[in-house]
């Protein structure tokens, strides 16, 4: 930290257009309040991006489901897995977001239960394996297995006046 500080200070002293009230890297008129305000705004927007946007959560959950379906279907085949498509249609009254995949659909027998909390075909292994592996910041994110992805998405969609429909084709 000390070495970096000295290097920055040295480099900044040669800055031909120094910012006002600065001697090198050192701000001689710094407002702790402004710094605190900026820092808290940054933290807030990061938190909002992470937790606040329900639309982000909904698309995230749907794409996760699609990825899993496609991956499980094509994992042992020589074919290249087909892409997941997202179409956003901006209508006069509605915005529709369609997420489609070629993962094979949901068996008819399972369809009545997909909006039930805790219904999942992922079994325990997918989530446990995931929790054991460390993949950086996604460490605690589970690919599938809780069985609340779809019901929670529909709940948010309906809460905000929309809906979530699942159309499955084998
Ligand atoms: N695009 C899809 N293609 C095939 N099956 C799907 C698809 N989306 C959902 N499913 C089926 O519906 C089930 C319920 O989905 P849901 O997202 O609610 O739970 P999950 O993905 O198993 O777990 P999680 O709560 O971690 O999302 C899945 O286990 C899967 O069997
Ligand atoms: Mg899911």
UniProtKB/TrEMBL annotation:
Signal sequence coordinates: none
EC number: 2.7.11.-
Keywords per UniProt: ATP-binding, Endoplasmic reticulum, Kinase, Mitochondrion, Nucleotide-binding, Transferase
Matching Pfam families: HATPase_c
Family designation: Belongs to the PDK/BCKDK protein kinase family.
A GO term, aspect molecular function: pyruvate dehydrogenase (acetyl-transferring) kinase activity
PANTHER family according to UniProt: [PYRUVATE DEHYDROGENASE (ACETYL-TRANSFERRING)] KINASE, MITOCHONDRIAL, PYRUVATE DEHYDROGENASE KINASE
Record domain Histidine kinase: where: 55-170
SUPFAM superfamilies with a match to the protein in the record: ATPase domain of HSP90 chaperone/DNA topoisomerase II/histidine kinase
Protein name: Protein-serine/threonine kinase
Predominant localisation class: endoplasmic reticulum
Keyword Aminoacyl-tRNA synthetase assigned: no
GO cellular component: endoplasmic reticulum membrane; mitochondrial matrix; mitochondrion
Intracellular or extracellular location(s): Endoplasmic reticulum membrane; Mitochondrion matrix
Taxonomic placement: Eukaryota, Viridiplantae, Streptophyta, Embryophyta, Tracheophyta
Major enzyme class: transferase
Membrane topology label: Multi-pass membrane protein
One GO biological process term: regulation of glucose metabolic process
């Amino acid at each position: 930290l000390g070495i970096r500080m000295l290097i920055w200070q040295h480099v900044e002293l040669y800055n031909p257009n120094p910012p006002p009230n600065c001697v090198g890297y050192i701000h001689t008129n710094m407002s702790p309040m402004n710094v605190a305000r900026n820092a808290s705004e940054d933290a807030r927007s990061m938190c909002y991006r992470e937790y606040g946007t329900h639309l982000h959560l909904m698309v995230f959950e749907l794409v996760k489901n699609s990825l899993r379906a496609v991956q499980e279907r094509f994992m042992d085949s020589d074919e290249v897995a087909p892409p997941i498509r997202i179409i956003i249609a901006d209508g006069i009254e509605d915005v529709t977001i369609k997420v489609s995949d070629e993962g094979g659909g949901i068996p008819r027998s399972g369809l009545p239960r997909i909006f039930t909390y805790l219904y999942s075909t992922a079994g325990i292994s997918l989530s446990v394996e995931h929790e054991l592996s460390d993949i950086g910041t996604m460490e605690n994110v589970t690919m599938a297995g809780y069985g609340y992805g779809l019901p929670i998405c529909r709940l948010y969609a309906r809460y905000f006046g929309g809906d979530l429909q699942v159309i499955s084709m084998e």
